[in-house]
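Changelog note: in this version the structure field was regenerated for every chain. One regenerated record is shown below for reference.
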Amino acid sequence: MARKNKPLRAGTQLDQYRIIRTLGGGGFSIVYLCRDESTHKKVAIKEFIPFKICSRDIDGEVIPQGEAEKDIFNAGRKNFINEATTLSKCKHPNIVNVVNFFQANGTSYMVMVYEEGTNLQTYIKARKGHLSEKFLRTIFPPLMQGLKYIHDNGLLHLDIKPGNVHVRPGGSPLLIDFGAVHSIHSSRRSQHSQIVTPGFSPIEQYEIGKGYVGPWTDIYALGATMRACIEGTSPPTALERSKKDAMKPASVLYKKHYSEPLLKVIDWAMEMDQMLRPQKIDDLLEALAAPYADGHEQDGENMFDRLVNNLKRGI
C-alpha cells in the first residue's frame, strides 16, 4: 500500500537519528528536523524522494513506479550522493555544513548541521520586496564569500535563488541546496543540461550553444536574487529577455531608494551577455564595497532579530 508524497512520521528512527518533525521540501526531497540519539543534538536531514516518479509504501520504503522510473531514480540518487560527498568536503561559515550521509528505506539521506533562521524567500514574500539596503549589504557580501570558496574549489552552484538562501539570527546567510552542483572545468562538449529556475538562471543554462556556464552564471543568479529582494517578484526569464529585453535597469527604477553602487552591481551581474558580466566574485565584492550614503536605514544591531519577530507576529 503506497503513501504517495507522504513524509516519514515524527518519532521514526533513521540510522542514529530520530525525526522530530518535517521542516519542508520540494519536488525531489523532504527535509526533517531530527535528533542525533548519540549526541542529543538537533540536525536537519534531507531525504531524496522525487515525488513524480516514486511512492512510499506503508513500511516507509521509497519505490519507483516502474522500470523506466527506476533508472531515473537511480541516476538522481547517484547525483544526490555526489552532492552530499562534495558538500561534506566544503567547510565555510556561509555554506551548509554536511556532516554525514547514509542509505535507508531504499533511498539516500544527507545529514546537515541544523541552523535556526528564516529562508530569504520568506523575507521577500512577507515584505513584498522593499528589503533595505542595509539588509542587502549585510546578506550578500558573506554569501559572495561562500560562493567564492565554492568557485575556488572548482565548483559551480547553478541554482542560486531566494529559496536557497537561509538567513540565520543576526543576518548571517547560509547558501543551501547544492543539488545542481557542477564542475567548473567541464567543457561545452561534456556540459550536461542544467536545472533551470525561471528568472534566476541566465541564458547559458537553458541550452548548450548559448555559451559556457561558469562563475558568471552564478553571478547572474546572485544579481537576480538581489533584484528580487527589492522588487518582491522574480525577474523576467532569460528566455523572455533574449527575445525582447524589456527589463528596465535597477539603477533607473530604484535610484530614489537605493544607492547607485548597489543598483549598478545588480545591473552588471544581470547582463545578458556573459562576457559583459563580472567574471569572478572578487569583481562583485570590490564593486559592492563602494561607499554609499545610508539615508534610508533603521539603526540598531538587532534589525534582523526584530524582522524575524515581526514575521512571526504576522506584521
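Spot check on this record: Confidence is low (pLDDT under 50) at residues 187-192, 295-304. The radius of gyration is 20 Å.
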